[in-house]
């Protein structure tokens, strides 16, 4: 469980069940208030990951391509 403990400037301070804390941008929680329980879900965007890797490879190849 994740709870919004408080807001500090532009940051939301999130507390876990085992009393660990971490910060996330306050902008992610426009309607939330202190004490609200939140759910956090992380999804890997496979298509964007592939595109990013392809672009990085193209840049690498462009700058380090050996011409004969």
UniProtKB/TrEMBL annotation:
Domain of life the protein comes from: Bacteria
Pfam families: DUF3006 (PF11213)
Name this polypeptide is given: DUF3006 domain-containing protein
Source organism (scientific name): Syntrophobotulus glycolicus (strain DSM 8271 / FlGlyR)
């Amino acid at each position: 469980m994740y709870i919004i403990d408080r807001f500090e400037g532009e940051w939301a301070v999130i507390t876990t069940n085992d009393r660990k804390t971490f910060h996330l941008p306050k902008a992610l929680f426009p309607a939330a208030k202190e004490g609200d329980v939140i759910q956090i879900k992380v999804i890997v965007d496979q298509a964007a990951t592939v595109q990013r890797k392809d672009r990085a490879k193209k840049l690498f190849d462009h700058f380090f391509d050996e011409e004969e």
